[in-house]
Each structure stands twice: as C-alpha cells, then as structure tokens.
Amino acid sequence: MSDQRTALVLGGGGITGIAWEIGVLAGLADAGVDLTGADLVVGTSAGSVVGAQVTSGAELEAMFQRQLEPPAQEKVARMSRSNLARYAWAMLVSRGRDVDFRRRVGQIALAAEKAGLTPSEQERLDVIGSRLVGRDWPDRDLTITAVNAHTGEFRPFDRTSGVSLLQAVAASCAVPGVYPPVTIGDERYVDGGMRSAANADLAQGYDRLVVLAPIPRGVGPIASVDAQVTGMLARVAVVTPDDGARAAIGRNVLDPAARAPSARAGRAQAATVVDRVADAWIG
Predict the structure, then answer these.
(1) pLDDT at 95 (0 to 100)
(2) Per the count of CB atoms within 10 A, which of 46, 53, 181, 271 is most buried?
(3) Is 134 helix (H, G, I), strand (E, B) or coil?
(4) How close are the terminal C-alpha atoms of the chain, in Å?
C-alpha cells in the first residue's frame, strides 16, 4: 500500500462549504478514516481555506469547533440576481470557450470593484488571514487554484510559485462581483471555481482520490466534478451534500449564520459515506 499515492480534492462552496467540508473530514476521522495526510491536497475557493488549514497541521476537532462559534459581526454577502445575470451573459457570448468565459467573468469582478460594490482588497485579505493557521506554505503538496482576471488563464499555485499562501487562498476565494480580485505581482486573480468547482483533474495520476464537493455540478464552460473524474484510473469517491446538509446550507452559501448547521450536517453525513470513502482510500 505504501506506493499508492493519495489525493484529497476540496471544492468550492462559500462559507457553508468550508463548514460542511470540515464537518465531513472530522466525521470521517471519528470513524477511523483520516484524509488529512493525503499526498496531494487540491483546494478551490472554500476548499483552499480548508486545504491550507489541514496541511498546516490544524487539528480537525479544533477546526470543527471554530465553525460552531457565533458569527459575531461578520457581514452577510450574497450573489445578487444582477451578478448572476452577468455570469449567464458571459456564458452565452463565450459559446463554450472556457478561457473566454473566465476572462469575461474577470471583467465582471474588476468592474464591480471599480464601482465600489465589493469590500476592499485589504478587508478581504484580513478576513481570509483570520481563517488560516499560518501565513507560510506547508511543507506538503498543496495546490490552490485561481484565475487571471485579465486573461482568463487558469493558475494553480503551490509553494514553488513565489506567491504567499494568504494571497493564493484569497485569490481562490475571490468570487467575481462579490469580492475584489486579489493582486499578485502585476496581475489580478479571482476564484478558481470559475474553471471548475473542484478542479479534480489536478489529481490526475494519483492512485486513490476523494473529492469533497459542496457544488458538484457544472454549468456551461465550468466543468462538473463527474466530467473531471470520469476516465481516471484512480479509485475515486466523490462526496456531495446529502438532503440534510443541503437543508442546513440553505440558499445562501455566503451566510455566516448557516456555518454551524452546515458543519454539524457534514459531520453527521460522514457516517453514511465512510464505507465508500474507506474503499477508495484504503480498500
């Protein structure tokens, strides 16, 4: 078994996605299946926050307990109808050309920032920084995904990229039109979920793969999890929110009030998927 390489892919899904993923990981560990020692961790958006924590040595139980804390003065963000309409228009005029779509979404993000519709970049860096264990890249294979707002180019970051962990995670979490793009060098970057909610194909070549995907579906040029794992030679388990978790998550994945219920629902769901996950991970 020692030559079997494992990969954990953590997908995007907002504040509730962070909580649900942590709940699932904690519940699986309770049942004897600890995924946090994966040879590769891929994090997109919400998953980048969780991935940065688990690879930096954060204890799952402590992470879980943090999700149960009251939201305090956190602001509720939401995806507006007008923003969704802009996404839909970008998909329509891009006609399936994925890089073109991502470039147009990057323009949406830059325009929203210019119009003062998003928090400041520093405000977002402070929020993301408060969620991380440390500011240094872990000595582990952690890949965090983002998209160049000007060109639409997909950009995976790791500890060799010359980019700070905080910047990489903040960029991966920069939902276009809701949060500002993040400055890295001379470029601006937005949410890696604009390519795929999970970017599971970055784990190609690994033998055992578990994907935690709060949002598994794809739409238009945004690839679904199933499309990315189909044909992989790895033993794969994809875990998505069950009915209880979807009810806990609710309609706004950016609402801090839904964080604690989402974490509890993820932990409860773990008991129902542990056999399937163990089969892929250990089996």
Answers:
(1) 87
(2) 46
(3) coil
(4) 10
